[in-house]
Amino acid sequence: MTELRKPAAERYFPFLSVEDVEGILPIAQALGLLRSRTLERFVEAYRASGEHANLPPLWKGKRARAISRMLSSQAPLWRGGVPTRLHLQLALWAFSPTRERLIIFIQRTKPVEPIEE
Q1: Does residue 16 lie within any of the structural domains?
Q2: Domain coverage including residue 104
């Protein structure tokens, strides 16, 4: 599918894979980042869907709005080589503007406290 034919939510906020989100879950849970019932339900729905193409449009819309809201703060996503809490929350919504860097961090790290924003 060409970039212009993709829905806006996918065009501007490409999805991390379900496997990527599952890799982030242990750190996010250790930090208590799943406090939002909406975010928790999104993660459940995304895992159940298996991939973003199967995710219901309702969740795609909620995801896009949540990501837009979080990015509007313009807070840093990395500090000292560690993703901030904001970045980990974005990753739970299956988005990271620096996916490769985030995945390398997750693969090399056991749950640790990210630097506060």
Answers
A1: yes
A2: 11-108
CATH code of 45's domain: 1.20.120.1250
Count Cα atoms within 13 angstroms, Cβ side, for 86: 17
Into how many domains does the chain fold? 1
pLDDT single digits (tens) 87-113: 999 999 999 999 999 999 988 876 555
Amino acid at 109: T
User: Does 66 have pLDDT greater than 70?
Assistant: yes
Q: Tokens 């620096």 — which residue?
A: 98
3-state SS class at 83: strand
Task: Work out the number of other CB atoms within 10 angstroms of the CB of residue 75.
Answer: 13
Asked if the structure places residue 117 within a domain, the reply is no
Percent of the chain past pLDDT 70, that is, above it, reads 84
Residue 76's CB is within 10 A of a number of other CB atoms, namely 12
Question: Is residue 82 within 8 Å of 105, Cβ to Cβ?
Answer: yes
